[in-house]
Amino acid sequence: MHQPAITGSGVFTPENIITNDELVASYNAHADLFNETHADAIAAGTVEAKPHSSSDFIFSASGIEQRYVMEKEGVLDPARMYPNFAPRSDEELSIMAEIGVKACQIALENAGRDAEGVDLIICAASNHERAYPAIAIEIQQALGAGGFAFDMNVACSSATFGIQAAADMIRSGSVRRAIVVSPEITSGHLEWRDRDCHFIFGDVATAVVLERAEDAQGVHFLVHSTRCGTQFSNNIRNNNGFLRRTHNQMEDRRDMQFMQNGRKVFKEVLPLVAGHIGGHMAEEGWTSDDLKRMWLHQANKSMNDFIGKKVLGRVPEPEEQPNILQDYANTSSAGSIIAFAKHSDDLKPGDKGVICSFGAGYSVGSVLVERA
Questions:
Q1: Angle, CA 163 vertex, CA 118 and CA 325 arms, to 5°
Q2: DSSP letter for each residue of 238-299
Q3: How far, in Å, CA of 334 to CA of 357, rounded?
Q4: DSSP one-letter string for 186-221
Q5: CB-count burial class (<10 Å; 0-12, 13-18, 19+) for 89
Q6: Could you give the CA distance from residue 316 to residue 176 in angstroms, rounded to a whole number?
Q7: Catalytic annotation, pick one of 104, 123, 156, 197
Q8: 293 Cβ contact list (under 8 Å, min separation 6)
Q9: Contact, 322 vs 343, CB < 8 A?
Q10: No. of H helices and E strands in the chain?
């Protein structure tokens, strides 16, 4: 059995930023257009008028101040309100593979490695650009990596589930070096025309390199243990899929984009996640006093504050629970990895932490690491 370690991490950040003020101006213009178009039905009570949004509402509800997106003009067009990506031929690199490769290259450089030495690539993300061939295999070819590759989707927990799969294979000896890459183009599945969720998501791509600790070229984090859990729930859902046309449902339907019952999610997920982390730590003989840092899923500041307090038994210090969602918004499975990549260099040998992501499913994955 071999000791797995995270030896490199990388974050690709798109160039385009949408601030809350920009988003609100666009959404409110869309709401006015919708209400004007459907004025008679709204007056008759058969259609519900769309309310305005505000920057204060967004920040108080989520802690988000801005988000990065791959394409901005389409999202901010009141008559469109979703990205406008140019189509690509089958011979061109897909948009997911393109940003995934960039994140992988940063992570490999951080690890002091070349792609040729990679045995496994897992593309772990909440949505994939196509059913097949796998995006992971496309990334493998574009990087010039060896071994094998496959896609994984466990919604917002995809990255930590991918880390568990890669760590287990390294531990058993079936692979020596792996990359878990999460290209999250969440702007494509967000319903930007819905006031209750139009501000939630942003785009990004992250990657982590895992290998045998004995092979590490520099600073690395020992993966002491991983733990994953799932519990079915409809409270976060997206009904789009390859069977859509067979159900004669090709029209523009609300349930074909991101949907959530936020209050139920808050009520049900928080104790699930806090209990998961606490149970995982107890299994490994860790206590709250052992934790130097928590890199949590970046969905909502209030959620992270609640989980941090439950796990530590007190209000976490800012450096103990770093948040990045104010800048990136919710980036699905990539959020905890962004936090890890940007807030881990200061840890000293022996410092311990937990990477945790959670979301639709419900699903939750945690990774207990130690700076070596």
A1: 115
A2: ---STTTGGGT--S--GGGS-EE-HHHHHHHHHHHHHHHHHHHHHHTT--GGGEEEEEE--S
A3: 9
A4: GGGTS-TT-TTTTTSB-EEEEEEEEEEGGG--SS-E
A5: exposed
A6: 36
A7: 156
A8: 319, 320, 321, 322, 343, 344, 347, 351, 353, 354
A9: yes
A10: 10, 13
Neighbour count for residue 69 (Cβ, 10 Å)? 25
- Give the tokens for residue 215: 């092979």
Taking the CA atoms of 53, 54, 55 and 58 in sequence, report the sign of the dihedral they define: negative
Length of the chain: 372
In the block, which residue shows the tokens 């059913």?
Answer: 131
**Helix 158-172 and helix 335-342, axial crossing angle in degrees, nearest 10:** 70
356 is an active site residue: no
Residue 333 per-residue DSSP state: G
Tokens of 365: 């994955």
Residues 6+ apart with CB under 8 A from 178: 118, 119, 120, 121, 122, 166, 169, 170, 209, 210, 211
Per-residue pLDDT of the chain (372 residues; tens, 9 = 90+): 999 999 999 999 999 999 999 999 999 999 999 999 999 999 999 999 999 999 999 999 999 999 999 999 999 999 999 999 999 999 999 999 999 999 999 999 999 999 999 999 999 999 999 999 999 999 999 999 999 999 999 999 999 999 999 999 999 999 999 999 999 999 999 999 999 999 999 999 999 999 999 999 999 999 999 999 999 999 999 999 999 999 998 999 989 899 998 889 989 999 999 999 999 999 999 999 999 999 999 999 999 999 999 999 999 998 999 999 999 999 999 999 999 999 999 999 999 999 999 999 899 999 999 999
How far CA 61 is from CA of 164, 191, 195, 272, 298, in Å, comes to 32, 17, 12, 21, 13
In the block, tokens 């796990």 appear at 311
Q: Are strands 177-185 and 16-19 parallel, antiparallel or unpaired?
A: unpaired
Amino acid at 152: M
Q: Concatenated DSSP letters for 292-314?
A: EEEEE--S-HHHHHHHHHHHHTS
Nearest Cα to 181, choosing from 296, 10, 325?
A: 10
pTM listed for this prediction: 0.96
